[in-house]
């Protein structure tokens, strides 16, 4: 059984993103976002900044605007240099495959008292006709909302006032059952997992105890292995079976509880009688184990972000990892940043966006499917997408552009 054979779910899907005044993202718009969407570019093209937009929004919901703002050194570092106006994030998404598109708009500004929500609204259009209408509208802690399962423009708007202008209305009102559409967005965003996995973080010896989901750094990998061993042994066997194909000498991975209550991850190679501790295993083995654990999560987060999966992995493993990422989108949405042509070789043109800096130094994006000749060379000549990028066939995001100066 592979990821593709896992039961299909109907997770929410982001289909559109607009970002304004977020560092190098002066005015970035990305349309037709797919269940697997990969952002490619050389160093300095804006990949990490785009990834951080999702992390920032997630932190605003889970930790509060002030903490997310302060962690990024406020508008001094966040606002695009030389520009004024609020920071804007706008998403268009569907709760399910055929449900109406909902637009979420968030604008954040700052004054001498700190950051505040300058504007926040939700809108949708029921059915195929009619104009979109906003069923939630707030500014600086005050506004109105239409409650109910299917809010309509003819329904009663209820005025609400929040305790602070720093509070996000969707995050606050979304905790109430009477606002199911608002609650659905809140659950979606608070469930995101933006991953910053490193092999070193997986080598720790945490306190014993099963944990359902991998952390953003992967430091609880032994706990998740323990959880899968106890609750989903067949899923763990699937993960280890695939891992053994990538690391042929691997026989077994186990999580052993020590006498002091800590959890030790052990890895056994086939030729040897005794297993070794995870801290002595290769970076690639631990990193691949962490990625497979994330992609084969029995109940995955609704959106997973992975930054530069190529780090510490052999290049020949990357096209297969890209395929597993695509298969995992049966139950989640994946956003990936990369500058590896080997990972890109496993992608389709509509899944890849090339990031580049325009003449003013701001990040722009272009889908590989919209580049002249790319799809044709892949279909007619069997060319690989990553190879086309490296050979200069992309009309933006040339990997040697910065070197040429």
Query: Could you say how many structural domains there are in total?
Result: 2
Described by strand count, sense and barrel closure, the largest sheet is: 8 strands, antiparallel
Terminal Cα span: 49 Å
From the 3D coordinates, which CATH architecture of the largest domain would you assign? 3-Layer(aba) Sandwich
- CATH H-tier superfamily of the largest domain: P-loop containing nucleotide triphosphate hydrolases
- Summed over residues and divided by their number, the pLDDT gives a mean of 89
Tell me what portion of residues adopts beta-strand conformation: 25-35%
**Total count of strands:** 17
Q: Helical residue percent?
A: 25-40%
CATH class of the largest domain: Alpha Beta
Q: Tell me the Rg in angstroms.
A: 23 Å
Order of helices and strands: EEEHHHEEEEEEHHEHHEEEHEHEHEEHHH
**Which class best fits the helix and strand makeup?**
alpha+beta
Strands of the widest sheet, in order across it, are 2-1-4-5-6-7-8-9
Using the alpha-carbon principal axes, give the shape.
Answer: globular
Tally of individual helices = 13
Q: What name does the CATH topology of the largest domain carry?
A: Rossmann fold
Low-confidence stretches: 3-8
């Amino acid at each position: 059984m592979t990821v593709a054979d896992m039961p299909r779910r109907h997770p929410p899907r982001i289909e559109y993103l607009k970002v304004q005044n977020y560092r190098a993202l002066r005015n970035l718009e990305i349309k037709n976002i797919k269940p697997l969407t990969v952002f490619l570019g050389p160093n300095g093209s804006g990949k990490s900044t785009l990834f951080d937009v999702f992390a920032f929004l997630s932190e605003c919901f889970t930790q509060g605007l002030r903490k997310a703002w302060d962690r990024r050194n406020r508008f001094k570092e966040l606002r695009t240099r030389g520009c004024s106006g609020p920071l804007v994030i706008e998403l268009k998404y569907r709760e399910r495959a055929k449900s109406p598109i909902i637009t979420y708009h968030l604008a954040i500004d700052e004054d001498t008292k700190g950051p505040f929500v300058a504007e926040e609204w939700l809108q949708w259009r029921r059915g195929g006709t009619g104009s979109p209408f906003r069923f939630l509208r707030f500014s600086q802690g005050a506004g109105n909302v239409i409650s109910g399962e299917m809010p309509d423009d003819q329904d009663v708007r209820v005025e609400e006032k929040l305790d602070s202008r720093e509070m996000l209305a969707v995050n606050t009102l979304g905790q109430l059952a009477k606002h199911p559409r608002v609650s659905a967005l809140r659950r979606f965003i608070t469930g995101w997992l933006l991953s910053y996995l490193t092999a070193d973080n997986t080598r720790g010896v945490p306190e014993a105890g099963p944990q359902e989901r991998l952390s953003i750094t992967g430091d609880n990998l032994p706990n998740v292995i323990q959880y899968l061993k106890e609750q989903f042994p067949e899923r763990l066997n699937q993960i280890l079976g695939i891992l053994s194909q990538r690391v042929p000498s691997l026989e077994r991975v186990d999580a052993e509880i020590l006498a002091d209550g800590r959890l030790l991850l052990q890895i056994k190679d086939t030729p040897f009688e005794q297993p070794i501790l995870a801290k002595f295993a290769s970076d690639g083995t631990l990193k691949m184990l962490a990625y497979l654990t994330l992609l084969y999560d029995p109940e995955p987060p609704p959106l997973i972000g992975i930054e530069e999966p190529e780090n510490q992995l052999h290049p020949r493993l990357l096209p297969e990892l890209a395929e597993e990422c695509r298969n995992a989108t049966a139950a989640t949405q994946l956003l990936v940043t990369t500058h590896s042509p080997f990972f890109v070789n496993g992608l389709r043109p509509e899944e890849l966006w090339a990031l580049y800096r325009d003449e003013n130094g701001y990040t722009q994006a272009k889908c590989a499917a919209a580049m002249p000749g790319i799809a044709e060379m892949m279909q007619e000549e069997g060319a690989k997408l990553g190879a086309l990028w490296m050979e200069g066939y992309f009309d933006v995001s040339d990997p040697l552009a910065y070197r040429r100066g």
